[in-house]
Write a structure and sequence with these properties.
Neuraminidase; four-stranded antiparallel β-sheet; mainly beta; binds calcium ion; single chain
Length: 389
C-alpha cells in the first residue's frame, strides 16, 4: 500500500494566542516560565531521539477514532455522529450514510476500522451507541462500503448488537480490531452496571470475536456452552477503550479501572479478567475490591496505573520510522494528557509523550508512513509524531 504524502496544517495563526496565554501564565506565576515553555513546545525528547508533533487536521468536535485511506487522506469519527474525511489539503468533508447513533453521555459514533482489504472491498466498520427496545442503549457494530467518490457509505448493515440494552450513558467500550485471520474483535463496556461483567448471558464487559459478516466463528471458546453468549472471547472487563494486535498476533487491550487500577491486558480466549471481583484500584465509593488483587481463575493485568491514566486508543507499533519503538505499545491518556509508550515484554513504560497538543487523547494509531498519529479532544485535532530531523 502506497499512501500519498500528507502535509501538516499551518498552525501559525493559532500559535499567537497560545504564546500570549503562556506569557500571561509566566507573568502571573513566577518561576513557571520554563514549565510553560516546555508545555508549549512541539518537540519532545524521547529514548529514540527528539520527535516533533505536527497538526494534520483541526476543527474537529470530540473526535473518537481515526483511520487511513490507501488513496490518501484519512477518516475521523466524531462522537456526536459525524464521519469526516480529511483530504491531503487538510480540508474536511462529511461522509453521509452513517447509522443513526445515540449521542448520549459517553455514547455516540465511536470507533472506526478500515480492514486490510479495503482497497478491494471498500468496506469500513463503525461502532456506535444505539437504542434498544424500551429506550435503552448498548453498543453496535456496522459495516458499509465507502463510495468511490468518498462522499457516502453504501449498503450499511448492523452486523452485531450487544445485548440487552441498559439505561444511562456510561461505558460503551467499543474498540474494534481486525485479527490476523480476518476476524473482528470488539470491546464492550459494563454499561455502568458492574456485576454484568461476570454474567456471560449478556455482552457487557467482554471482548467478542466475530466473522466479517457478524456471524459467530465455530471455534469461539464458549460455543455450545449453555447460558453463555457464543460471541464472547474474553470476559470480566470493565471498559476497554484500547485494543490492538501486534506484529506477533498478540491482542492487547487497555481498560479503564474504577478509582485507579487502569489496566493493560494481554487478551486470550476464554479468560476472565476479574472485574468487578478483583482489581488494582478501589471502587469509586472507596470500597475495596471484594477479593483484592487476585482470585482463582481470574487474570491480573500485565500493567496497571494508579492514579488513573484513563487510557483510550492503543497502537502496537511495527513501523520503520522509529526502529527503537518497534514492538512497543502506545496508549493514549484522557486524564494525564500524554501518550504512554510501553515495552510489553518488560511491562514498563519507556517513554511518556507530552506536548501542548496532547490534551485528552482519545485515539492513537500507527500511520501508513510509520508516524504515531493521535486525536486530541482538547485541541479538536488530529496530530502525528515524526522524528524531529
Ligand atoms: Ca481486570
Amino acid at each position: 500500500m502506497t499512501a500519498r504524502p500528507l502535509h501538516p496544517v499551518d498552525l501559525r495563526r493559532r500559535r499567537l494566542p497560545l504564546a500570549a496565554f503562556g506569557l500571561a501564565l509566566a507573568l502571573a506565576v513566577p518561576g513557571s516560565l520554563l514549565t510553560s515553555e516546555a508545555a508549549r513546545a512541539d518537540t519532545i525528547e524521547t529514548s529514540v531521539g527528539e520527535v516533533r508533533v505536527e497538526a494534520m487536521a483541526t476543527g474537529l468536535t470530540e473526535p473518537w477514532a481515526i483511520g487511513f485511506l490507501p488513496e490518501g487522506g484519512f477518516l475521523v469519527t466524531e462522537r456526536g455522529g459525524r464521519l469526516l474525511r480529511v483530504d491531503e489539503a487538510a480540508d474536511r468533508h462529511q461522509v453521509s450514510g452513517v447509522p443513526r447513533v445515540a449521542a448520549t453521555g459517553q455514547g455516540g459514533l465511536l470507533d472506526l476500522m478500515i480492514p486490510r482489504d479495503f482497497a478491494q472491498t471498500r468496506e469500513l466498520f463503525l461502532t456506535f451507541a444505539e437504542t434498544r427496545p424500551g429506550g435503552l442503549l448498548n453498543t453496535s457494530l456496522a459495516v458499509g462500503r465507502l463510495s468511490e467518490d468518498l462522499t457516502r457509505l453504501d449498503d450499511v448493515r448492523v452486523i452485531f448488537r450487544a445485548m440487552p440494552g441498559f439505561g444511562g450513558g456510561r461505558h460503551f467500550g467499543s474498540r474494534v480490531a481486525e485479527g490476523p485471520e480476518g476476524h473482528l474483535f470488539m470491546t464492550l463496556g459494563d454499561r455502568g452496571s458492574d456485576t454484568t461483567s461476570q454474567d456471560r448471558s449478556n455482552h457487557n464487559g467482554t471482548v467478542v470475536r466475530l466473522n466479517r459478516d457478524g456471524s459467530v466463528p465455530g471455534d469461539n471458546p464458549f460455543v455450545g456452552q449453555e447460558g453463555v453468549l457464543p460471541e464472547i472471547w474474553s470476559w470480566g472487563h470493565r471498559n476497554a477503550q484500547g485494543l490492538a494486535f501486534d506484529a506477533d498476533g498478540r491482542l492487547w487491550s487497555t481498560e479503564h479501572g474504577p478509582r485507579g487500577g487502569d489496566e493493560l491486558n494481554l487478551v486470550e480466549p476464554g479468560l476472565n479478567y476479574g472485574w468487578p471481583v478483583i482489581g488494582e484500584g478501589v471502587h469509586y465509593s472507596g470500597r475495596p475490591m471484594p477479593e483484592g488483587r487476585e482470585a482463582e481463575g481470574m487474570i491480573r493485568p500485565l500493567m496497571d496505573w494508579s492514579p488513573a491514566l484513563a487510557p483510550s486508543g492503543l497502537a502496537a507499533y511495527s513501523g520503520t520510522l522509529f526502529p527503537g519503538w518497534q514492538g512497543h505499545l502506545f496508549a493514549g491518556s484522557l486524564q494525564q494528557d500524554r501518550i504512554a509508550v510501553i515495552d510489553p515484554d518488560r511491562a514498563v513504560e519507556v517513554d511518556s509523550l507530552q506536548a501542548a497538543q496532547t490534551g485528552r487523547i482519545r485515539d492513537v494509531r500507527e500511520g501508513p508512513e510509520g508516524a504515531i498519529w493521535f486525536l486530541s479532544i482538547h485541541e479538536g485535532g488530529a496530530f502525528r509524531i515524526v522524528p524531529a530531523e
